[in-house]
Amino acid sequence: MFFIGLQQLCHQTNTNYTIAMKRNLTLLLLLGSAALFAQTNIKLEGTLFDQKTNQPLSEKTFVVEGLNIQAKTDDKGHYEISVPDDTYQLDIKVDGYQSVSQNLSDSNTLNMYLKPEDFKDGKIDLETAVVTANKIKSSEASLLNVQKKSVTIVQNVGSQELSRKGLSNAESAIQQVTGISKSEGKGGVFVRGLGDRYNSTMLNGLPLPSNEPENKNISLDLFGSDIIQSVGVNKVYNVDLYGDIGGANVDISSKLYEGKGFLDIEFGSGVSMRAVDRTFKVANNLKYYGFNRNNLPTSIKSYQFVSRWSPDKSAFPVNQDYGLTGGKSFNVGSQGKLNVFGTASFSNSYTYEDGFQRVVGTTNDNIEVDYFKVKKYEYSTKTTGMLNVNYKINPKHQLFANGIMVNGSKSSVNEYDSYLPQDNRYEFTRQTLTEQNLLLIGQLLGKHQLSDRLDIDWGASYNLVHSDMPDRITNNLIHNDGDNYAFNTGSPTTNNRYFQYIDETEYAGKAILSYKLFKNAENDYNGKLTIGYNGRKKSRDFESNQFNFRISGDVKVNPNKLDDFLNGDNQASSPYIPGTFFINTQRMESLVPYTYNGDLTVHSGFANFEQTINDNFTYSLGVRVDKVLQEIEWDTNYPMSGVKFSDADIDKTFILPALNIKYSLDSRQNLRLSASKTYTLPQFKEKAPFRYEGIGENSVGNPFLNSSDNYNLDIKWELFPSSNEILSFGAFGKFIQNPISQVLLNSALNDNTFVNAGENAYVFGAELEVRKNLIKNVGHSELSAGFNATVMYSKQKLDSDKVAEDTKNTLSVNFNEKEDKLQGASPLLLNADLSYKVLKGNFKPSFTLIGNYFHDRVYSLGSFERGNIIEKGVVTLNFISRAEIGDRWEMKLSVDNLLNSKIRRIQDNQQGEIDTRNFRKGLDVSLGVKYKIFK
């Protein structure tokens, strides 16, 4: 009800909306500040050892300095103490031994090795002076501690939070971060209103390729929670990142394991409520595990298509998933340790949605095509395998090797009943579409402490993507009265089969050297100089073939029995023979594919200086130089007279400064300021002049599309009431020169393209985040809540003459306004969660409710008096429950899309709004079980 009320509020007048938001944010700040009063204690236990003899310190009294705590070990050296839950570090003093300082992790077990006072430096290995058992680097408390101490602004979602909230992949994880939302209409996520092209994705600090030609970034839902240690989101730029960022950099840390051996097996099942209660249609020749590849025909003189035109029916549309995960550590010599972690999993899902679509002209009564009944059946799979090996040679040197394979597939049957008013004709269109995206990642990384001052961090990676669309099938039939259908012969392309293949390879490397400066009285250092190099080389090879079936005569057909006519018996060797069909390609009878080839090379050097002036003030100042060369060649279905390959080249050197300042008001509060310059490169698909054809919507690239320059400013206050609580408020602003937007071309084919729409754009806003323990360890249970909100305002200039000049008059647009909102920028984003967890006993259940909301945002800009396409705001609500049963069993229940909200796009014409897309997806319910074979 909370989210529904907010949605209704946002549809009121702008004045009421602004006043209400001010009141709500003020009240929420007051309530949040008032709620952060309780401080509870946690119990720590462990054993104290003499580092020289490796024996427990029995019957020893010790003092926890700064907390006024005195305690004593028992005859086995064991101790138990109670400390405030916001304690990050313990300083322990035992008579006859040197003081020990230890940062706390989420583990309640803390073993320490103490050095006798009479031992001199060098007589004992200082690296073993403190040993912490079961440190959980991905815990919420540990990641918040990293956020608190970092000089840069960063937010992390760790595996513990993923598990607590029941989040299944990296995409779900980053949607919990302030200022981030997902788009149903476009791939990826929006960060502060900036979409896919403004963001970047990494794995362990090395770049990742895209698995889809439509997008710059890889689909984050390919990375399941079983391979994630944490997901870091940098909405503020730092010079160790590539400069092609306007929104955020997402860095996935692959899971590492250190400890005794374990092996888990899990399996589950579920249903989409709208898919299971109907006859579910699937593509013919569909492969259950998603490894699909139909061979391209070698000749059009004979019928060589394997898959049938008409879809099959699935008798059992039930989702399934199963997986195996294990890890173990091995001691190597006296100091070395080998940590091995591996996982393999498979999951699939059946989903169904229905609704309607429209292509609308300049007025609401000018409906060019009315797809009044649309049904979409989709079967998707994900197969994942990962092996991580970490070799700790000694405490100063370690190596990491990561190998990941992810295969994602989607196969959909999309059916459209439509009416064309200008022709007074009803049609039926079916498109059967299968996509397979295979991603292979290999990484080798190292960390080395060469001295007390000097550290080296390096890495190299090779990424390979095969993104295939093997045999997309499109049929268009004229629907006469009743069940009478006939092939539409108005164009040779109305019935076709399309094959598309993309291979993308990327080599990347990094080498970073850090040198500590300004040694202080405590033998620590107050400064650090970091210099480094990053390099990447990415190549994409794209090719497509379309086979058109030119049907002669008035051929009646059953939509569900198309193969009765479209088979080898009715293929003719020449066109225009009544009652037959003739196959040709978009190049007439040639099998030479349409292609484009893109190359991107980036060489980068950077330097960063960080200094702690005093206990309160820390800053970093850096600069990065990116040398970028982007080149594209093409031979496509969209000829542009007089345009040369060199017109599409981008050969630039970007100089990118960044400043980060942190001022600690006290031990729990920080003030931060960040300022930087970055850039945004257009993507291969946005530049290559190739027409991507969809039902009711096409897109074509613009070879003249140029890069954007981004100027970024962030200010943030944050309070850490305890180790896993936060209250923060921030403001941000971005000024973008030469922004990139999607817009409708002056085209009879309803083509969209990408242009530098005007001289500049800007977006500014404010963010609020609250994470609070409402009940902690009371009655062996805890209740926690999280909430974040973002309000934004954006504006961009629009200049049709500039677009014509930039593109040498090869592309024509006519913006309706001189300025408009920035594409994808929602004025309001809300995320909230409420979790309850039982901590003790043989049955430990947890329950989590997660809600998200984004307000209306521009999907694409209007042109030629057609209004903007607006993606209407959506409220989503999901429920997840987990239960640990004994030491070995775990169960999970999840219910997604509880509200089953409409997914809508409207066209905002002068006469008002009119729907261009309206769908519902339905509820998804799943139940899973995990069993620990050994632990």
TrEMBL record:
The keyword Translocase does not apply. It is found in: Cell outer membrane. GO terms for cellular component: cell outer membrane. Its main location: membrane. Residues 149-244 form the TonB-dependent receptor plug domain. It holds the Pfam family TonB_dep_Rec_b-barrel. This is TonB-dependent receptor. It comes from Empedobacter falsenii.
